[in-house]
Structure formats: structure tokens, C-alpha cells
Amino acid sequence: WRAVTKLGWEKIPALVKEFNDSQTASIALIENLQREGLTSIEEAIAYAKLIELHGLTQESLAQRLGKGQSTVANKLRLLHLPEIVQHAILERHISERHARALLALKNEELQLQLLEEIVEKHLNVKQ
């Protein structure tokens, strides 16, 4: 709108489409996924919402997004981490690779202890 106004245009070529709430939500989620700089948790949340909205499988979602099924599955697995770990990913205190390493630990208390150590000591994944 601002660009058109700045150019002094009174009319622009446009297609107006009507969408229901589910379609609107899907479009917003897909547009959000195309942004750069999303954290892996933000991607995972968007994938989960799209799967829920449309009753998709991970495979069908991956195909629609042009991603590998393993990429979608790995992102969704991050949602099984404790909320504190997910928050650390959102705040970019740890990487997705750190988070996947924490997923290998089945004990939540151990995951949280290791998270604290990773953040405090600025450990890389190999360490």
C-alpha cells in the first residue's frame, strides 16, 4: 500500500480471493515458514499446526513444502523436549544440533542439567 501511494498510483492490478479461516491460517503459516531467520522451534510449531489443520502426514506436509520427510520429522521431534529447552532454542541460546543431542537423553532432568552446562560453558555439540 505504501509503495503504491508513494508512486501516486490510484489503481493496481490485483486478484481478490476469499478464504475460510483454515485456509487463511494455512497461508499465514506457509508465508511465515518462508521467512528467513526462523528458529527450529518456530518451524516445528508451524509444521505441527499445518498437520493438525489439514490432517496431513509428515510425508505429505514435506511434499507440499518441498522438504524432506526427515527434515519435517526432526523438527517435530523438538516439540518433545521440555519447555525450558524449547525456550532456549527460541532465544538462540542453543542450536538445533544441541537440541537433537538432548533428545537422545530420555531423562528430562539430565536434559535440563546438560542444557545448563551447554549454555554456561558455551559448549559446541561435539563437546
Structure explained in plain terms:
By secondary structure, this protein is mainly alpha-helical. The protein has eight helices and no strands. Helix 2 packs antiparallel against helix 3, helix 3 crosses helix 5 and helix 4 crosses helix 5. The protein is elongated. The model has no long low-confidence stretch (mean pLDDT 90).
Tally of separate helices: 8
Relative helix content: 55-70%
Secondary-structure-derived class: mainly alpha
Query: How large is the radius of gyration?
Result: 19 Å
How large is the share of residues in beta strands?
Answer: under 5%
What distinguishing features does this structure have?
Arc Repressor Mutant, subunit A; elongated; single chain; 127 residues; 64% helix; mainly alpha; 2 domains; 8 helices
What layout of secondary structure does this protein have?
Elements: H1 2-7, H2 21-33, H3 40-54, H4 58-65, H5 69-77, H6 83-90, H7 96-103, H8 108-121
Helix pairs in contact: 2-3, 3-5, 4-5
